[in-house]
Design brief:
heterodimer, A: 7-stranded mixed beta sheet, globular
Chain lengths: ~110, ~110
């Protein structure tokens, strides 16, 4: 399978715990995006990378959120001290410019 | 800044044609995407327009007018499985950030 891969697919965590999600993009894609989506809304932009450089981070993103793409390949999104409001689908997408493809997402539930 | 507007929901009949509109404002334009998203699933890519005009791909077509900041997705011969959310998205400033509208929830009735 050469599509975008996300792991895990589902995560249930207790409030206050840290969680980390991984995204493996399509190999030749140099841009990688992270989004958060809640029911009935479109994907909300979190951050994006051009190769290993993080070029923009949403102002809506608190300091509890951090993302890395150390070698310009896979990326990780970490949420520290999770809150119930962090419960959402976290989506990763990659693009070479003319088509952006999504992974299956990680559904986070904070209890 | 960037802004994307699309209707929240639409209803259409099986076998009919439906047009989903999208208007956008961006300080730099580098293309417009349409995605389909079924409940509980990730968005799937439908089309990408960067030049004015109509692009046809089977039952789905997408139109772009850059001067009007306007696009539409046309779905023909509607099937029940077309019931989904349809998302419009554009690249923003300097072509980097990809921003989505809130999505149009399409319900196809028998």
């Amino acid at each position: 399978d050469t599509g975008v891969s996300q792991d895990p697919r589902h995560k249930i965590t207790k409030r206050g715990q840290n969680v980390t999600f991984r995204c493996d993009p399509i190999s030749e894609h140099n841009r990688l995006y992270w989004y958060r989506q809640t029911l009935g809304q479109g994907p909300e932009f979190l951050t994006y990378f051009q190769n290993e450089a993080q070029l923009e981070k949403s102002r809506l993103l608190s300091d509890r959120f951090s993302a890395e793409r150390p070698k310009g390949s896979f990326s990780t999104l970490e949420i520290q001290r999770t809150e119930q409001g962090d419960s959402a689908m976290y989506l990763c997408a990659s693009t070479s410019g003319t088509a952006a493809f999504f992974g299956q997402g990680t559904r986070l539930t904070v209890v | 800044g960037q802004n994307i507007d699309q209707p929240t929901e639409m209803t259409a009949t099986e076998g009919a044609i439906v047009q989903i509109n999208c208007t956008y404002q961006t300080s730099g334009f580098n293309g417009l995407f349409w995605y389909q998203q079924h409940a509980g699933e990730a968005p799937t890519f439908l089309s990408y327009n960067v030049l004015d005009g109509l692009e046809e791909k089977g039952r789905f077509s997408s139109f772009l007018s850059r001067s009007k900041g306007y696009s539409y997705l046309l779905l023909k011969e509607l099937q029940m499985k077309d019931s989904a959310s349809y998302l419009c998205a554009t690249f923003g400033n300097q072509g980097g950030k990809l921003i989505f509208g809130q999505g149009t929830e399409l319900s196809v009735k028998p």
